[in-house]
Structure formats: structure tokens, C-alpha cells
Specification:
The protein is 88% helix and 0% strand. The protein is mainly α and 82 residues long. The protein has 2 domains: 49 residues; 29 residues. Helix 1 runs antiparallel to helix 2. The radius of gyration is 17 Å and the shape is extended. The relative contact order is 0.05.
Length: 82
């Protein structure tokens, strides 16, 4: 989680200059490719290391933080004026 947080800060600081340099189409394509590769690597590793009988439980557990953050973001949008 700490590495993800540091990556988020670094991405926030560099996004605008990189966007100006590459343009929006290349930036979006690159981000999607990187995220897809990282997600695939995580899922593959989890499946290889987890016994078959626990696959469903580990998949659910690995999705929980993402789903919780979506719910928290939705709740925050309801109370924070933008």
C-alpha cells in the first residue's frame, strides 16, 4: 500500500508534463497497457500460489480493497462539494 501511495503522488506530480509531451491519446494508451500488464501479473501470481480450493476466497479478498475504495469515493462525492 505504501508503494501504491508513493506511485500515486509521483503520478500526480508528473502527469501534466507527460500529458503535454505525449498527448492525451498516447498517455491513455500507455496507462491502459501498464495497468493491464500489472493486473494480469497480480492475478496470475495469485492463482499460481493459491491452492485450488481457496481460489474463490483469495479472488474475493484481493478485490475487497478496490471495491471498498469505490464505495468510499462514492460516499465522499455525496458530501464534498466540487
Amino acid at each position: 500500500m505504501a508503494i501504491q501511495g508513493a506511485g500515486s503522488v509521483l503520478g500526480g506530480l508528473t502527469a501534466t508534463p507527460v500529458l503535454r509531451h505525449l498527448g492525451p491519446a498516447v498517455m491513455v494508451a500507455t496507462a491502459l497497457a501498464l495497468l493491464g500488464t500489472a493486473g494480469l501479473a497480480m492475478v496470475t501470481t495469485r492463482q499460481r500460489l493459491t491452492p485450488s480450493r481457496l481460489q474463490g476466497r483469495t479472488a474475493a479478498a484481493s478485490n475487497l480493497p478496490q471495491r471498498a475504495s469505490i464505495a468510499a469515493g462514492a460516499a465522499l462525492v455525496a458530501v464534498v462539494d466540487h
